[in-house]
Each structure stands twice: as C-alpha cells, then as structure tokens.
Amino acid sequence: MLRDGALGLVRIEHEKLIGWIIWLGVRLGLIPPQRYGHVYMIFRDNADRWRVVEATAPKVRLRPLTPRDIAQGDFYDVPDADAYQRADAVNYALSQTGKWYGIAGVMAFAVYRLWCLLAGIQPAQKATWYCTELAATAWRAVGVCLLPDCRVQYTLSDELADSPKTKQIRAAT
Predict the structure, then answer these.
(1) Alpha-carbon dihedral of residues 22, 24, 26, 31, nearest 10 degrees?
(2) Which domain holds residue 81?
C-alpha cells in the first residue's frame, strides 16, 4: 500500500542522460552497478490524488503519479516514520518546488569516488537539487536518516532502495 513520503525508484533508462552518466561511472569503476536511475517522493493531495515531487531537469516539480510510473517504478516506504514525519518530509520536498535541477551536482556525483572534494562548501540555502539528494534531505530534515551515515550528497538511488530504513512495497492502483 502506498503511503505519503514513499519513494518511487525508476529503473535506469540508457537513452536518457543520467543513464549514460551511470553507465560511464560503472564502466570507469567509480560507482557499483545500479538498478535505478531516478527517485521521487509521492503523496496524496487534498483531493485524494497521488502526486509526485521530484528533482529533474530543469527544476524541482510537482506532477500527477501516472499509470506509467506505477508500471515502471518500484516503490519503497519508510515504515518507521510516523504521520507527522511523513507530512513534514513531503512538505519539505514541496517547499523546494521551482528550484533548479543541479546538473553540476549530478556530474560531480558521477565522479565522487575520484574527486570527492568537488562539492565544496554547501550554502545555507540550497539553490539546486538532484533527485536522490532531494529525497534524502527531505527525510533527514524530519529526523530520519535514510543512510547510516546520514549522508545526502552523492547518494545513489540504489542506496536508498537498499537502506535499512526503507522497505519495498507494491504500488496500489
């Protein structure tokens, strides 16, 4: 059963830029092989419709959850989160709507293991996001670290799927 704040993970599509970046990172030995190439958060709006908030080029956006999402995505819940944490995590992600997609972050992410200092110092207010960073940060903002080290930068989609804090669920249509 889908619940607010669940993560939708999309299998790698090699015809998209991120698919090629992941492929190259794996081939160069910078990252381990990956199943997923994108992540988004889902929630029910006031009209009881399932919605998606995601960081994708060109900006963080809000859109409907589609039958294609359900057919192509795997969904992961954060089972230990209470209703308040779920609502606050979604609201955090929603508050980032309209901010720019961080393509520079994605490129730095692909070579993280070689040049981990590329990210530099984070500004107090983030101006750009990429998909895994937005999801991990939204949960961390409400006290739920999806990764054991509470890292949000350079987070791989597969790391969120394999996290001890997430559990795979089936999509309810």
Answers:
(1) -60
(2) 7-169
Backbone angle region of 143, left / alpha / beta, with phi > 0 → left and psi within -120 to 50 → alpha: left
Rg of the Cα trace of the chain? 15
Q: Please report whether residue 2 resides in a domain.
A: no
Burial of 19 (0-12, 13-18, 19+ CB in 10 A): middle
How many Å apart are CA 47 and CA 43, to the nearest integer? 11
We report the CATH number of the domain holding residue 35 as: 3.90.1720.10
Q: Is the pLDDT of residue 89 over 90?
A: yes
**For residue 97, is it within any domain?**
yes
Contact 88, 142 (CB under 8 A): yes
pTM score, whole prediction:
0.79
Cα separation, 96 vs 28, whole angstroms: 33
Query: Total domain count for the chain?
Result: 1
96-140 per-position pLDDT tens digit: 999 887 655 555 554 444 444 444 544 334 556 778 888 999 999
- Residue 40 carries which side chain, given as an amino acid letter? Y
Give 3-42 pLDDT, tens digit per residue: 889 888 888 776 577 677 778 878 887 778 888 888 999 9
Residue 1 counted as domain residue = no
